[in-house]
Design goal:
The protein starts with 5 loop residues before the first strand and ends with a helix. The longest helix has 16 residues. The protein has a single domain, classed as Aldolase class I (TIM Barrel, Alpha-Beta Barrel). The strands form two sheets. It has an eight-stranded parallel beta barrel, surrounded by eight helices. The chain is α/β, with parallel strands linked by helices. The structure holds magnesium ion. Magnesium ion binds next to loops.
Length: 291
């Protein structure tokens, strides 16, 4: 039996929020349902950020209400703060019985934290801690995200020790899987390996995931390097949804099709039906093209 690698599909949130076109709720639901049929392990379906700032994710509560629950599927939603958690709790009541996960975001560099989260790393850890405490009684899963694994668009290269410190602080709030993001897509297998190895001194490898961007064309190689270190959990976006927000026209999130192809070529199992995934990728490309 092949060893199993989990695919955490992020296209309907991380991908679509970076697309210019605002995709209507019904199309987002159709994409999510198609992805759940493909056999990915988890799907990030939306976020409870301020819709004035991220109009692409407005209506996440409607998405949650409309999606067709699939047994065994984990549904993930980005929750940035307590107000977002309130929105999540209200929406969750409209579609019960699903296995929910809350995604929590931290940056490894101060410049990115201030620009994208609007506060220092220390302040954002305090926010995350408040959300985790308030979410505890809900019994939902948690998943941490750390951006700027190797490079920050504002501060330049990121010291692996800095990533390791932030990962420890996050893991100290609550043990949870932590996805390490190469936000700029500049990571190479060597640098990614160094950064993950540093984090693994503070957080068990079994709890680490990789979130690679293909801007520099190295995402599949970085996945391979992370697999070699022992990671078995990867984020990817169907059809490469999202592009790179820092390099217009360039790829961002690694395409799920590409990630699955490389992982399976290396002898691992993902449980993903590649024909259904190809159908979802076509939907994603059509979504992006439609005006
Ligand atoms: Mg991403």
């Amino acid at each position: 039996m092949s060893e199993v690698v989990r695919i955490h599909e992020v296209g309907p949130r991380d991908g679509l929020q970076a697309e210019k076109r605002i995709v209507p709720v019904a199309e987002r639901v159709a994409l999510i349902d198609k992805l759940s049929a493909s056999g990915v392990w988890a799907i990030e379906v939306g976020s409870f950020v301020n819709p004035a700032r991220v109009p692409q994710m407005a209506g996440t509560d409607q998405v949650m209400a409309m999606l067709t629950p699939k047994a065994g599927m984990v549904y993930s939603v980005l929750v940035p703060n307590l107000r977002g958690l309130e929105g999540f709790i209200a929406a969750r009541a409209s579609n019960t019985g699903l296995d929910w996960e809350i995604a929590l975001f931290i940056a490894a560099s101060e410049g990115f934290s201030r620009a994208n989260i609007g506060c220092s790393i220390a302040e954002s850890l305090t926010r995350v801690s408040a959300v985790v405490e308030a979410a505890r009684p809900l019994g939902v899963r948690l998943r941490g995200y750390i951006s700027c694994l190797t490079d920050c668009p504002y501060d330049g290269p990121v010291d692996p020790a800095a990533v390791a410190r932030v990962a420890k602080a996050l893991y100290d709030i609550a043990p949870m899987p932590i996805s390490l993001g190469d936000t700029l897509g500049r990571g190479t297998p060597e640098r990614v390996t160094k950064a993950i190895a540093a984090v693994a001194q503070n957080v068990p490898l079994s709890q680490l995931a990789g979130h690679f961007h293909d801007t520099g064309g190295k995402a599949a190689d970085n996945i391979e390097a992370a697999l070699a270190l022992g990671l078995r959990d990867f984020d990817a976006a169907v059809g490469g949804l999202g592009g790179c927000p820092f390099a217009p026209g360039a790829p961002g999130n690694v395409a799920t099709e590409l990630a699955v192809a490389r992982i399976e070529a290396l002898g691992y199992a993902t449980g993903v039906n590649r024909a259904i995934l190809a159908g979802a990728a076509q939907m994603a490309r059509d979504m992006r093209a439609a005006q």
